[in-house]
Model the fold of this input.
Amino acid sequence: MTRDGAPVPHALATVLRAVSPCAVAVSGGVDSLTLAAAAARVGVDLLCVHATSPAVPAEATARTRALAAAHGWSLIVLDSGEFADPRYRRNGADRCYICKGHLYDAAAHAAPGRTILSGTNFDDLNDIRPGLTAAGERGVRHPFVEAGLDKAAVRALAAALGLGDVATLPAAPCLSSRIETGLRVEAEDLALAHTVEGWIRDWLRPQTVRCRVRRAGLVVELDAAALDALDVGGRTALLAGLRVRAPGRPVTLARYAMGSAAHPALKAAE
Done:
């Protein structure tokens, strides 16, 4: 708790005070926005850094700008430059590592003398995240991990801090994660994946949707409940709508599988 009674856990507040002055790398998702809000509530010397690129949805940038303005956070918006790096565009297994390296280097350049913070939470340690290696090489700190907060705790904190809909934002990995490993990252493909996912969210309201761009075409993944709820007519209508939005590309449906774009084979359900 902070001295004004704000619901920032003591362990987290202690970490945040220890790393001040700090710069939070804010993606526009629930974790990093909540970390920024917690740091501001604790009263540390805070700067937020947000990177834009074709892999970052426009609404994430708009959300970041709006919350920074509403809460009085100092914010720098920059281009971290990964799209100019041919290694990133080649989309090898090290893409995330390369991307995070650019992000944290740009943040450090924009915020000299500040400790760079990420919104990584304790649950993230269970996933394969090459970006954590890039963070470790640059001395980036992960206050939620250090304080033992998992995703549920972060969402609860977001609600307690008055962040409204941020607390219930769905997980939103970088759009480049939709591209099959080894397939070149193109801005047009990222925009297509984002458009398809937005259309499906508005129509079906699934818990999870991912539009994977694969060599064989598009694979739209839905959580099991949403996929199973589609009858024959619903699947036909969904596939027809997808083909209108992605003309000339084969489209299939599948159950959601985390990180499936990294694997060469996927069982698709027509």
